[in-house]
Amino acid sequence: MTMTLFLLLTAAVSSLSDNRDDTMWQWEMTQAQYAAETGIARIQTMLAERRTVPETLSFNWDGTKVQVRGQPGPSGYWNVTAVGERKNGVVQTVRAVLENRRWTIVRWERLPTSSTR
Question: So which domain of life are we looking at (predicted)?
Fold first, then answer.
């Protein structure tokens, strides 16, 4: 009886620990995505203000390292790719296509997440 109770308690604690790890991983993934989206917004602002857009824009946002690349595409559209990387190895990539009059997003996609998990 004692052994059965011990095994049940061990399984319950293990399950709680796994759930907590999954929740933390999802939080990290969301933070990396928000940071990448912030990078796209910065490029939009630069284009709207007619500023020169660097080949690669790098910055840190709330514990996330962000790298953004923007380049002109066909018909005046701009292709922007932003990568947010968290300290624990979670990497989130977001791509957007911006139209050239108001610099609004006409196409947006989130690429599959990578992680060292």
Answer: Bacteria
